[in-house]
Design brief:
Helix content: 40-55%
Number of helices: 11
Structural class: alpha/beta
Radius of gyration: 22 Å
Shape: globular
Largest sheet: 6 strands, mixed
Number of strands: 6
Strand content: 15-25%
Number of domains: 3
Amino acid sequence: MPLLSQKEVLNLKLSCIPLSDLKMLSQNLEVSNIGTATEIIKRVLESHPNEKAIDEFIKGKYSKRIQERRAIISDKDLKKELMKVRTFSWGAVQGQLDQKIQTEYVRRIVRYEDLLNNVRAKLHNDITNYVICTWFNHWTTVLIEEHISMHPRVVPTIKSKKGIDIFFDGQPFDLKVTYLPRGYDPIKAISNPSDLAVWMYENQGAQRFGSDNRLFVILLDKDNPEKSWELKRDFNLVFNKIDTFFDNEVVSNNDEIVFTFGKNTYTTVAKVLIITK
């Protein structure tokens, strides 16, 4: 999508607030909180509210969610748990575990004892590795996204909305924390991140296609890309790079890219932060 106006962005921010919290916010703004979310948002916009007050309300709610997570496990303890991972081998293509089971076991093996032996010999390890990798990626991403979302120039969402995780420099973004795609030239990625962004859009899966603005955080060990997963848990380095990026970057028309998917052409806004080691 092209760059949005301040009013359009404010409308999106309000639509990313759960109804119960939206009612509380509207009451704080001395606006009637009766009716549906759409009706309340309309009245809030018509009141020309202080956007900073809305941002602070959202960030306060998000901060409480972080505190709830920390009550279960602190940042320090979570980081310790993540350091226990010794290897990072999926064992199956991400998102295709069921297909692997069907193809290599269910539909190929005809004898019961052979099935059990094959499961014990290989599938158990494959599933264990798959779960570990998924677990590691999830919780490292949680810590990274929480850190980004609490940056002074970022406003997070507190209700799930497709294609929007954060607002940065007055624009909405879908936040993607990932690794450099296998086979993509690291030198090319670092020298021309816009081309990398186009590649990421054009090579996304059809089932999860989206043309929304995206902010990519790419982890890359330049000397050994296969070890990039270890860089993801180097939180001191990662957080410092994130802070520098969000302290200094701006969003402008220069961030617009054009990409093709299927038979259609799309224009969107993309930012890329490549964290290297």
